[in-house]
């Protein structure tokens, strides 16, 4: 007989006690990152009840089961309120898979190596930006893996969205009406490049001449024909008190337009329920938001692994739920032993339609696993939940250098007030021959300049 040393209430008491004292240190039985550095796994930092859904629910839900309307109340405390409604009232289902404890399977390999290598070298300068001990831009990996404050958690996320030096995501988007009908279909290529904090591409850690920039990011729409050639370019200063420059190219006008800052809280294309501000739950410079605080702490359910559709030639996945059976992606989730929910307010966006957002992070990797925003009256407004995976399944792999590719696989954005849903999935290839690739050094010239926008729109 296996004797459980720590009962079901031990972890709850631990999290409540830390929250009451304002402590964010990760790990229940031992400090998390010391355990990871020593063993390469987070398992020894947590009791059994936080490493297995079977143990957490005392066998009422087990690995391989589905979470449905019939049993969701057993894990309601592991879900955000909107996902709970989606399951309880809209027919969403979540497949439970084993928890991932090997930390190197939860982010790109080189990003995690840099996180360990550079731990302890980050600080905030007098303006609030993240710099090294020498006052230079950040050098790669998460600057605050052992974050002590809510601001440190958000700073680490904002500095590197996809955790690769360069990411090209081929995307299919489905925008649903309130009755569950797919009203709009789009294909796009999303490209993001980090000119600082580079961990793979030479020269590193900085691209010479671009040290004052944090990110170049573009999105190009090759299909359908009514938006073909439409493109947007986002150029982020490294200084997080400054707003990104946002440019758009509309083929019908054959010119580039600069958009105002508040465009970050509006869809870029008809039918979509996604804002630029939603990107990676940190789509704006972190110092344009404020009043960061921890509002919740404890385990969670999140889609961290086994979400790559290896057996599908274009990686496309099935759907279910909603009035027409098309509202939600098929998704695998697992138990996250320790998560933290951070609240922030858009203090430099006086006309923003939201009053605050709450983002939940896997405290082991500081990866965002869900977000809810609230309208100006404080009511739940929109949710954003993504799924991730190592692209290594069933003997098939997509390689990223010497290691399997890690990335997001699919996303839901749900306006709970209008019941409009936008679904995204990362696929292998889209119209125009655009493909998902990582760390392609030619991406800047091909996709991340104003001349590139015009070229793709012609």
Strand portion, in percent? 25-35%
CA-based shape:
globular
Low-confidence stretches: none
Mean pLDDT: 94
Helix fraction, binned, reads: 10-25%
Gap from first CA to last CA: 70 Å
Q: Radius of gyration over alpha carbons?
A: 21 Å
Number of strands: 24
Structural class: alpha+beta
Largest sheet: 16 strands, mixed
Give the helix tally.
Answer: 8
Protein name: DUF1329 domain-containing protein
Organism: Oleomonas cavernae
Pfam family, one: DUF1329
InterPro entries: DUF1329, TAT_signal
Could you describe the 3D structure shown?
There is one protein chain. By secondary structure, this protein is of the alpha+beta class. Helix content is 15%, strand content 33%. It has 8 helices and 24 strands. The protein has helices at 8-21, 32-39, 53-56, 81-90, 109-117, 150-159, 443-447, 450-457, and strands at residues 66-67, 94-96, 122-124, 130-132, 166-176, 182-193, 213-223, 230-237, 245-250, 255-258, 290-302, 319-320, 328-329, 332-345, 354-362, 367-375, 380-390, 392-393, 396-397, 399-400, 403-404, 406-415, 420-427, 437-438. The strands form 5 sheets. The chain has a 16-stranded mixed sheet that branches. A two-stranded antiparallel sheet has the order 3-4. It is globular. The mean pLDDT is 94.
Note the main attributes of this structure.
two-stranded antiparallel ribbon; 16-stranded mixed β-sheet; alpha+beta; 458 residues
């Amino acid at each position: 007989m296996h004797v459980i040393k720590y009962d079901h209430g031990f972890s709850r008491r631990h999290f409540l006690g830390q929250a009451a004292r304002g402590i964010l240190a990760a790990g229940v039985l031992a400090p998390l990152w010391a355990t990871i550095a020593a063993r390469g796994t987070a398992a020894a930092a947590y009791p059994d009840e936080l490493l297995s859904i079977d143990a957490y629910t005392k066998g009422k839900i087990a690995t391989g089961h589905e979470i449905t309307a019939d049993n969701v109340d057993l894990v309601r405390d592991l879900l955000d309120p909107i996902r709970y409604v989606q399951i309880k009232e809209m027919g969403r289902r979540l497949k439970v898979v084993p928890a991932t404890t090997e930390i190197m399977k939860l982010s790109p390999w080189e990003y995690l190596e840099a996180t360990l290598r550079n731990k302890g070298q980050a600080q905030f300068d007098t303006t609030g930006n993240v710099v090294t001990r020498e006052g230079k831009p950040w050098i790669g990996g998460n600057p605050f893996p052992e974050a002590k404050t809510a601001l440190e958690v958000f700073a680490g996320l904002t500095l590197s969205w996809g955790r690769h030096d360069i990411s090209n995501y081929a995307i299919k988007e489905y925008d649903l009406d309130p009755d569950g009908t797919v009203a709009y279909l789009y294909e796009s290529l999303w490209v993001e490049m980090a000119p600082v904090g580079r961990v793979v591409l030479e020269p590193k850690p900085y691209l010479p001449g671009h040290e004052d920039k944090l990110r170049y990011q573009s999105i190009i729409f090759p299909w359908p024909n009514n938006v073909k050639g439409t493109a947007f370019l986002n150029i982020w200063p490294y200084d997080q008190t400054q707003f990104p420059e946002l440019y758009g190219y509309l083929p019908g006008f054959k010119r580039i337009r600069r958009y105002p800052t508040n465009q970050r809280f509006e869809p870029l294309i008809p039918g979509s329920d996604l804002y630029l501000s939603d990107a990676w739950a940190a789509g704006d410079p972190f110092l344009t938001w404020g009043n960061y605080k921890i509002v919740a702490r404890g385990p969670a359910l999140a889609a961290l692994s086994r979400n790559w559709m290896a057996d599908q030639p274009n990686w496309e996945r099935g759907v279910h739920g909603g009035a027409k059976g098309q509202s939600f992606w098929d998704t695998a989730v697992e138990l996250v032993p320790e998560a933290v929910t951070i609240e922030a307010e858009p203090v430099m966006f006086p006309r923003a339609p939201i009053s605050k957002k709450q983002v939940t992070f896997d405290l082991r990797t500081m990866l965002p696993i869900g977000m809810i925003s609230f309208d100006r009256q404080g009511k739940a407004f929109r949710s954003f939940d993504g799924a991730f995976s190592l692209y290594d399944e069933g003997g098939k792999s997509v390689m990223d250098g010497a290691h399997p590719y890690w990335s997001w696989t699919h996303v839901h954005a749900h306006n709970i007030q209008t019941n409009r849903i936008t679904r995204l999935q990362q696929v292998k290839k889209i119209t125009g021959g655009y493909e998902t690739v990582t760390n392609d050094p030619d991406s800047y010239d091909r996709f991340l300049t104003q001349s590139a926008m015009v070229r793709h729109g012609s």
